[in-house]
Amino acid sequence: MIRGVLFFALVAAMIDGTAVASNNDLKKELLQKQKELMDLSSQIDQAVGPEFHSDRDVQLKLATDLIQNWARKVTTPDYAITAQGIAVQGDIDDGNGYKVWIDNPGDTKAALRFNPFLLTFSPQQFELNTYLTAHAEARVWGKALFINTNVFCATTPDVTTPVQAVATETSPTIGDVAYVVTLTQPTNLNAAVACGLGGLGNYTIYFPINQLAGVIAKGDFSLGYQNKIEITVPTTPPQKISINVMAKDQTLTIGSDMIEVEANLDVGSRP
Amino acid sequence: VQEDDRFIALSREDRAMLRTLLENRAAQLLMLFGVMCVTGCATTERQLLLSQIDLTDKGIVQSRQMMAQLQAQSGGPGPYDAKIYISTPVLNDALNALSGLTFAIPGIEATANVNQVRLTRYGAMPAVFLDAQAKKSHLTVKIVATAVLIPVDTPGDLKLSILSFVPDVQWYWIDITKWIFVRELLAVQVNKITDQMPIIHLPAQGSVTLGGPAMDQDVTFQVSPTPSYLTMRIHIPATQWSPTYNSIRYYFLGDGIYAFGDLQ
Question: How many whole angstroms separate alpha carbon B219 and alpha carbon B144?
Fold first, then answer.
């Protein structure tokens, strides 16, 4: 028995000695690889450019190229603002024994057709340049003694003008940049509709383009952010943990190539 | 004892004590058990070391790939349509929600209970270290699992993929009763644990939305000197467009996760 134990102990000790020596080699190999990994991490830190630096908790960016593509897409082949009369107040003319008026405001229509938008981005705003063609029409009624008539009249020719507009960002939040695009040029241009009523005379109705196109577009750049981090555990049924992340101190930067929103986040506890 | 000459380096007293020990049956059994343990522990240590080396190798491979990409793109991510960055402290706060998570350890009748989760950098890998306790009947063994966040099909979703699942033990002083359990834990297939790991949804949606819905607004203006006024209802067409991500590139640096996407 004693011989057996001794023999076993000796064999075990030899095996163990070999195993321990082998493990020491593995420890050296591990240390070497960990050093290589640390060196690589340092090299990466030195190689990264400004896109990989942020001192905030969250940063969202949208390329202005994408916004250009969107503007082109939604305005091709054209972008039309239409208008129809819904109420009229007063007569166009009311003289001694005659009257000229718009009887049905719904007969009064206007359409402003814009060429595809071209956007340019500058610090903290973007501008829109294009052309529009304005068409307007109306049906005008006239009455004098035995005459009771009406005439359909329209812009001839339609009015074409270059357009400039500027976007104003309203209440930017971490996920959304709301904007309103308002016309800045032309400032005072009418689409004139000449209506000839024969013996009752000629009348011109003016459709102010800068009022009809006061707001050209309105919307949001939603940057695809949501105020929560969710964790789904694949149990049956799946367990969902939702953690609220509320943004604070958000800043909006509009540059020539990017719209950027940054913020810090308060991470809420799981509900 | 004829084998005494093998212990020639020992003193006479030591040889006498050794002889006494070897003749004692209880001492013989204890010695046999100890020898088995030491041999087994060395093997266990080897497995742990190999596991750590494997993990480090993966970190090196990922880091080299990232380094090559950065060098090819002048330190940047290349062209992109949208970017989202989330800091490591925020992700760590969110991952704390996993404390208390219990999952079955596949292949053995045991469970693991997560104590703490920590996102950290392991080269270019977004490595998540999970401190857990493995329990099997009355036995408890501390576990350190290392996972990496792997992007899945849904944009902004990252799956915890287990790379290593190792008992955190001092193997030379290990409690003999836990030794078998430790060896069982070392044999657990990590891909089967990954099946039970959660998916982290970054605070991002699968698309961005540009533009707005159609809208109407009323404008009143003077149409003649009389004066008469016309109110028109202006219809502004919809401009909404919601492109979706067709590819996302993730980069993990120590300060957080950077995701760059192309939209279509």
Answer: 68
B137/chain A closest Cα distance in angstroms: 22
- Give the nearest chain B residue to A218 (CA atoms): B212
Residue B143, φ and ψ in degrees, nearest 5: -125, 140
Q: Find, among A58, A165, A187, the residue nearest to A119 by Cα.
A: A165
What residues in B contact A141, CB-CB < 8 Å?
Answer: none
Rounded Cα gap, residues B253 and A43, in angstroms: 12
Amino acid code (one letter) for A109: K
pLDDT averaged over every residue in chain A: 89
Closest-CA distance of chain A to residue B172, Å: 11
Q: B187-239: per-residue pLDDT in tens?
A: 888 888 999 999 999 998 888 999 999 999 999 999 888 889 999 999 999 99
Q: What are the start-end ranges of the H helices in chain A?
A: 2-47, 64-74, 209-212
Q: A57 and B205 in contact by Cβ < 8 A?
A: no
Question: Nearest CB to B231: which of A87, A214, A231?
Answer: A87
Interchain proximity A224–B205, CB inside 8 Å: yes
Beta bridge partners of A63: A258
Please name the residues between 189 and 208 in chain A that touch chain B, using a CB distance below 8 Å.
203, 205-208
The DSSP bridge pattern shows strands B199-201 and B256-263 to be unpaired
Nearest CA in chain B to A44: B67
CA–CA dist A104, A125 (Å, integer): 42
Longest dimension (CA), chain B: 135
A76 touches A68 (CB < 8 A): no
Separation of alpha carbons A106 and A129, rounded Å: 31
ipTM of the complex: 0.83
* Cross-chain CB nearest to B56 (options A2, A33, A225): A33
CB pair distance less than 8 Å for B203 and A225: yes
| B260 phi/psi in degrees, rounded to 5 | -120, 125
Q: In whole angstroms, what is the distance from residue A133 CA to residue A113 CA?
A: 5
Interface test with A, best of B22, B121, B232, B244 (most A CBs within 10 A): B232
Closest CB from B50, B76, B231 relative to A85: B231
- How far is CA B96 from each of CA A236, B100, B130, B217, rounded to the nearest angstrom? 22, 9, 10, 49
How far apart (Å, rounded) are the C-alpha atoms in residues B103 and B147? Answer: 15
A179 within 8 A of A172, measured Cβ to Cβ: no
Neighbouring-strand partners of residue A50: none
A265 touches chain B (CB under 8 A): yes
Nearest Cα of chain B lies from the Cα of A146 at a distance, in angstroms, of 23
pLDDT digits (tens, 9 = 90+) for A206-223: 999 999 999 999 999 998
